[in-house]
Structures are given as structure tokens and as C-alpha cells.
């Protein structure tokens, strides 16, 4: 019997290819491979080969290496990384968003470890490992500077990537996430949602559990036939043991939790009806992150705002990316240098 959720993937892959993206598997280290959709100029006509990009932000002796860059070629576009959340892999998560960005930016859509075709033999389950793998993949592709967009679990990975690699990350756009999942935030969130643990909530095994997850993730009450829920459970919740370990690896003790000093510009794009990480948490986080952080709430949207209200989400994301890419190069270079010091 056809799995209707799996059946949409060939269409999504066709749309990705039509948009000029290609899938590749990047070996980060022996035993660790990250699957990623990348601009087609990285892939040879024979397929599979990785060709380093000429990143628009790469400098040589203080000046851009104009000899290596095509002025109006695809390699000269700014680079944007889209990092998915916990319920689905990259192309499924960003299916309503990549189309409005691909004509202006070089898009990179990775599958995090234990999602899609990405895997590792490492026992490490921390968001730091995910961030290191994304950074290593971008280095293999020759990308020296990028803007990072993260949703939910992917937002935590994005924050960690910006913290550890300020030389790579120019800016962050995050929705439905926190800088770190502390014991306090986790306990308060689970109590508010009536769940005993994040594993119970985010890794449902029954139709009832999946329906509960979707109902608290979306502002609008949507009806789907039970067949859809069954297909979704089979298609999207594989690698259960490893993903449960990823959830356990997220939790940070309250004593160890610190808000890093980010030099990057940060945009928090939030569903005003988000029940998992509510707008009040986003407001508090904005205050903690300082003057370089902006908050934009989207009404009548929940945790899955990029799915529920993709046009409003895409407009705000597009404005922010246009803004950070219009900043004077001197200002951006100063911010990157300050981040490294």
C-alpha cells in the first residue's frame, strides 16, 4: 500500500531540482555522513562530486579575490543554510519556503544526523556535534560565510553554530526555539503542555500521540484522515532510539546554562500562538540577546508558523536576509572580528 507521505517526496525532489538544487552525501569523517541539498554548481555533470564554491565573502590579502569569482554567476550569491526541526527532514520542513529564496541566494538544506540519509557512528548526541557537522560540510563546499535559518531543534543547532563559528555565521533567523534547553525550561514546557517528557511529546508512537503533537504545534485546528497520521508515523519517525538520545542530549543543567554574547544580527520570527515556546519566552530571549536581536511576531500562527502562514513567514525572512546582506562590508567584517576575539 502506498504511503502518501513518502509519495510526496519524489515531487519535492523534482521541485528542488527544478530550482537548481542537487542532493549530495558529504563524508564529514569516517562513520559520519551528512546528506544535503546544495546549488547545482557544486555537483559535476556525472553527479556526486563536490566542487568548492567561490564564496562571495571570501577575501584574499584583505581584498576580494575577483579573479576567482564570476560577477553575476550563481557562485557570487550570498549563502543561506536552512536547518530543520525535529519532526521532519530538510526538504519536507522547508517545502513552502525555499522557492522564494532560491533565486537570490545559494541555498543549503542539510539533513541533521539521524534525519533523512544523514548518520553517524559517534556516540555523541549533542547539538554541538550537529553544528560541527554542518560547519564541516560547508567548509567542504568552500562556503566561508553564510546566513543561517533554524526552526525549533534546528534553531538550537543554529545558535550553537553561531556561538562556536562566528567566522562562518553572518546572521541568524530563528523560530520556535531557545538558545539552550535548560532543565527549567524543559520542565516548565512539559508541565504546561501536560506531557511527562519531551520524548513522549516529540516521538509519538500512536495516532493519538501524533494528533496531540500536531494540535499543539498549529494554531488552526486541521482535520486529517487517520490514514495520513499512520503514514506520517511510518515515514517521519524512524531512527527512534537515536532521536530519543538526541532529545536527552539537548538538556542542559540550569547552573551550566549561559547566554553567549552573539555579535551576529539575530531575527526571532515567532508564531504569536506558539504553545511549545510561547511569545513571552521569545520576548525574554530578545532582552537577553541584546540590541542586535529583533523580534517579529506573526499572528494566527503556532509553532509551525512557516507551514501555517508561509507567506507572512517568507516575507519577514526575506526582509531580514536582504537587510543583513546590505550592511556595509566594513561593519560585517568588524562584527566577525569582534566575535573571534
From TrEMBL:
Residues 78-310 form the AB hydrolase-1 domain. This is AB hydrolase-1 domain-containing protein. It comes from Leersia perrieri.
Amino acid at each position: 500500500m502506498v504511503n502518501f507521505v513518502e509519495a510526496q517526496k519524489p515531487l519535492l525532489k523534482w521541485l528542488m531540482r527544478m530550482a537548481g538544487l542537487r542532493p549530495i552525501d558529504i563524508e564529514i569523517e569516517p562513520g559520519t555522513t551528512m546528506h544535503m541539498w546544495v546549488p547545482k554548481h557544486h555537483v559535476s555533470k556525472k553527479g556526486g562530486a563536490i566542487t568548492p564554491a567561490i564564496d562571495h565573502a571570501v577575501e584574499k590579502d584583505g581584498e576580494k579575490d575577483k579573479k576567482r569569482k564570476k560577477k553575476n554567476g550563481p557562485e557570487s550569491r550570498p549563502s543561506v543554510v536552512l536547518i530543520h526541526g525535529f519532526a521532519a527532514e530538510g526538504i519536507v520542513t522547508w517545502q513552502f519556503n525555499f522557492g522564494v529564496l532560491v533565486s537570490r541566494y545559494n541555498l543549503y538544506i542539510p539533513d541533521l544526523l539521524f534525519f533523512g540519509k544523514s548518520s553517524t557512528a559517534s556516540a555523541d548526541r549533542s547539538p554541538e556535534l550537529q553544528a560541527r557537522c554542518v560547519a564541516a560540510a560547508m567548509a567542504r563546499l568552500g562556503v566561508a560565510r553564510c546566513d543561517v535559518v533554524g526552526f525549533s531543534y534546528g534553531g538550537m543547532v543554529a545558535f550553537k553554530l553561531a556561538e562556536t563559528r562566528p567566522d562562518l555565521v553572518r546572521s541568524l533567523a530563528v523560530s520556535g526555539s531557545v538558545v539552550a534547553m535548560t532543565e527549567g525550561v524543559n520542565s516548565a514546557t512539559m508541565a504546561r503542555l501536560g506531557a511527562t517528557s519531551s520524548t513522549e511529546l516529540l516521538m509519538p508512537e500512536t495516532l493519538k500521540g501524533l494528533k496531540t503533537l500536531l494540535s499543539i504545534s498549529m494554531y488552526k485546528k486541521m482535520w486529517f484522515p487517520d490514514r495520513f497520521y499512520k503514514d506520517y508515523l511510518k515515514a517521519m519517525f524512524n531512527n527512534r532510539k537515536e532521536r530519543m538520545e538526541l532529545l536527552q542530549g539537548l538538556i542542559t543543567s540550569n547552573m551550566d546554562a549561559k547566554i553567549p554574547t552573539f555579535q551576529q544580527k539575530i531575527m526571532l520570527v515567532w508564531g504569536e500562538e506558539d504553545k511549545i515556546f510561547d511569545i513571552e519566552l521569545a520576548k525574554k530571549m530578545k532582552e537577553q540577546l541584546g540590541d542586535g536581536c529583533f523580534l517579529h511576531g506573526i499572528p494566527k500562527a503556532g509553532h509551525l508558523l512557516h507551514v501555517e502562514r508561509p507567506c507572512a513567514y517568507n516575507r519577514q525572512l526575506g526582509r531580514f536576509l536582504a537587510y543583513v546582506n546590505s550592511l556595509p562590508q566594513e561593519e560585517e567584517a568588524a562584527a566577525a572580528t569582534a566575535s573571534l576575539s
